[in-house]
Automatic annotation (TrEMBL):
GO biological process terms, semicolon-separated: mRNA catabolic process; RNA processing
EC id: 2.7.7.8
Gene Ontology CC entries for this record: cytosol
Molecular function GO terms recorded: 3'-5'-RNA exonuclease activity; polyribonucleotide nucleotidyltransferase activity; RNA binding
Coiled-coil segments: none
One Pfam family named in its UniProt record: KH_1
Organism annotation: uncultured bacterium (gcode 4)
Entry keyword Transferase: yes
Record's protein name: Polyribonucleotide nucleotidyltransferase
Similarity comment: family membership: Belongs to the polyribonucleotide nucleotidyltransferase family.
Source lineage: Bacteria, environmental samples
Length: 718
């Protein structure tokens, strides 16, 4: 083989491979197996046939004027990984990322980003690609583990700690299980995804059903014991590799603010200059902020002897000074920008049924933040089919979250829903799914839409609280009202003190070190999401936040029940009427029959739509309540052996002169009405009373279960 000179340096990187046993599962790490031109690549495989490639790329050339951390994370699903062709009839190449891929990208980004210094300005790109999958679990702990190892091996010393995450469940027996299968997730009481360093939580996603606080804390602790093994595995792998090969020099550039200017500006921004920022509306707050920034810029350029700093650097120094003052007042004096207590929730208002033609609607307003939530009910045939790289799945409840530019007073281009909108929608689904009625109790497909019309912080709270009320307005019999609250924590690095704030408004948003969102009912919590900017967070803080959040949830829930405590007494006249029943699986064939013949006949006769699944759940969607019940009655009678007194409708298939008429009942069944039972008077010519194709209502007058004979008479309406 000829090795060109340009390839020699690349091929000096020898693959390094090592296998570890984590919680009884053999996991193999291998570097430089694939993607040889990127800064670093890691392949993770396991004994189940999963094969994940993660790459970390760092752009050494920083774009001029960059004043933020431009990191992107992309998670890629490949249909071939599970042996699927996938997509649709006309498009076989993977196209736009699926909703699951977008959510997974966010799950990788959120715990990785805080590990970099704030003023990192290099472009960093992390790409995780599933190349082979068993299809039994989502193995999310590989994604962040791969990204963390790739960043550490690339010489990124600024990436301070190994990060990993795990997914565990609590089953119906209150037992913990690591690396649950997709089937395990369907019956879990608690589904917890959590990211840690060796010592601290950095990110949490969770959904619960009837789980108390103590079990949640135990689940956190169990998850941490697993994640520690993954973090130690990373440290060992990097250490082993670095003993054999020198790690490359870091490309990361961190901008440092000039210390002399930073001190001058911090001294200039006094408590007196901060006064106009307190107890004002959002727009006034931003106006006062811009005035202060402008004043500081003019002052610093006047007093500076050396070359003046850039506007971006001045803005950051002012921002840091304001942040320091505000955080100090919260920590020391418990004073917030709007003078609320740290545990106080802003006033809320409700309005229901404001959209006359929709199936259910509610307007939630908390001070300035508004969410208009709309419920649309559909028949089971509307159910969403999820066709991703795993097995085909369905969703009977979806939540769409929209955040238009006018909601925050901005003028910008309208775009397709982004990662934030998709993430907020999925979060709402997690919060509300545990209280939804079963498909048997409420055989409707449910689509929720949250239109954020005005936002001054915590629009997710408005979305979920409003949706809970909107569903009740739409006659959805939810098990309990779900309320939602967003909590923030401020931490003092110098003395270790911290303060937990309830319901932060937009003006306070830049102060937090931890963002904690929780949803729950009067009995239990249903969902939790947490992101952390600091590099450690103890379980004591988690306990305090959960306890404080429950107080806020109860306060919000009481306000909600004052307006509407249960679902509406009747369905909207504009919603479809659905009646459902469960039939034995072995009877499905009788209902469908050849070419869906029976279904088509019932659909046409009663003007309904019929849906039946493999488990025997049959739903009839009708324009009127009467039509739906008549169709169900027809199907019920059709499936049972007849009894004396039953009435039925059959189609005349054949006339036998002097004998009677053969009625076609469907499902390859036919019975005969004797000539003596066709009319009250004596019949000599059947053709005078019936013709082939006529629909005849008849009554069962006798049943011989030994000879399997049924006696019928025609029902004559006066």
């Amino acid at each position: 083989m000829i090795i060109w000179l340009s390839d020699t340096k690349i091929l000096e990187h020898k693959p390094f491979k090592k296998t570890y046993n984590i919680a009884g599962k053999n996991i193999t790490l291998e570097s430089w197996k694939l993607a040889l031109l990127i800064d670093w690549s890691v392949v993770i495989t396991d004994e189940d046939g999963n094969y994940l490639l993660t790459t970390a790329g760092i752009n050494e050339n920083v774009k001029p004027g960059t004043d933020f951390f431009p990191m992107t994370v992309d998670f890629q699903e490949k249909y071939y990984a599970t042996g699927k062709i996938g997509w649709n009839r006309f498009m076989k190449r993977e196209s736009r990322p699926s909703e699951a891929s977008i959510l997974n990208s966010r799950l990788i980004d959120r715990p990785i980003r805080p590990m970099f210094p704030k003023w990192t300005v290099n472009e960093v790109q992390i790409i995780s690609t599933i190349l082979s999958s068993s299809g039994t679990s989502d193995y999310g702990f590989y994604w962040i583990t791969g990204a963390s190892i790739a960043l550490m091996l690339s010489g990124t010393a600024e990436f301070e700690w190994p990060v990993s995450w795990t997914r565990i469940i609590v089953d119906q027996n209150d037992e913990f299980k690591f690396d649950p299968t997709i089937d395990d997730l369907k019956t879990a009481k608690l589904d917890l995804t959590i990211a840690w360093t060796l010592d601290a939580i950095t990110m949490v996603e969770s959904q619960w059903q009837e789980v108390n606080e103590d079990l949640v804390i135990k689940a956190f602790e169990y998850a941490h014991s697993i994640v520690k093994e993954f973090c130690n595995m990373q440290l060992d792998f990097v250490s082993e590799y670095s003993r054999l090969h020198a790690l490359p020099k870091s490309k990361i550039v961190v901008k440092h603010l000039p210390q002399d200017y930073k001190k001058k500006i911090a001294d200039y921004v006094t408590e007196e200059k901060m006064t106009p920022l307190y107890h004002v509306w959002k727009t006034e707050f931003h106006d006062e902020m811009h005035k202060l920034w402008k004043e500081v810029k003019e002052w610093i350029w006047d007093v500076s002897d050396a070359d003046p700093v850039t506007e971006a650097e001045i803005d950051e120094c002012v921002y840091m000074a304001i942040k320091k003052h505000m955080r100090k007042r919260v920590l020391n004096e418990k004073i917030r920008l709007d003078w609320r207590k740290t545990t106080e929730v802003r006033p809320v208002w409700w309005e229901f049924g404001i959209l006359p033609r929709v199936h259910g609607s509610a307007l939630f307003q908390r001070w300035v933040t508004q969410a208009l939530t709309i419920t649309t009910l559909g028949w089971p045939g509307d159910i969403q089919i999820i066709d991703d790289m795993f097995e085909e799945n369905t969703k009977r409840y979806i939540h769409h979250y929209n955040f238009p530019p006018f909601s925050v007073g901005e003028v910008r281009m309208m775009r397709w829903p982004g990662r934030r909108e998709i993430g907020h929608g999925r979060l709402a689904e997690k919060a509300l799914e545990p209280v939804l009625p079963s498909l048997e109790e409420f055989p409707y497909f449910i689509r929720m839409v949250s239109e954020i019309t005005t936002c001054n912080g915590s629009s997710s709270m408005a979305s979920i609280c409003g949706s809970s009320m909107s569903m009740m307005d739409a006659w959805v019999p939810i098990k309990n009202i779900v309320s939602w609250v967003a909590m923030w924590m401020i931490f003092d690095d110098e003395n270790g003190e911290y303060e937990v704030l309830t319901d932060i408004q937009a003006q306070e948003d830049f102060l937090w070190d931890m963002d904690f969102k929780v949803a729950g009912t009067v009995k239990w919590l249903t969902a939790l999401q947490m992101d952390c900017k600091i590099k450690w967070l103890s379980m004591d803080i988690i306990r305090k936040v959960i306890t404080q959040s429950q107080m806020a949830l109860e306060s919000i829930r009481v306000d909600m029940t004052k307006t509407l405590s249960t679902h509406r007494p009747e369905l909207s006249p504009f919603a479809p009427f659905i009646v459902s029943m469960r039939i034995p699986v072995d009877k499905i064939r009788e209902v469908i029959w050849k070419g869906w013949e029976t279904i088509q006949r019932i659909t046409k006769e009663f003007e309904v739509k019929i849906d039946i699944n493999d488990e025997g759940m049959l739903s009839v969607t009708a324009k009127t309540q009467e039509g739906g019940k008549n169709a169900i009655d027809y199907i019920t009678k059709m499936l049972k052996w007849v009894e004396v007194g039953d009435t039925w409708i059959g189609k005349v298939a054949k006339i036998l002169d002097w004998i009677g008429a053969i009625l076609d009942l469907g499902q390859n069944k036919s019975w005969m009405i004797h000539i003596s039972k066709i009319a009250k008077e004596r019949v000599t010519n059947i053709w005078d009373y019936l013709k082939v194709g006529d629909m005849v209502e008849y009554k069962v007058i006798s049943v011989d279960t030994v000879a399997w004979k049924v006696g019928l008479e025609r029902v004559i309406k006066e």
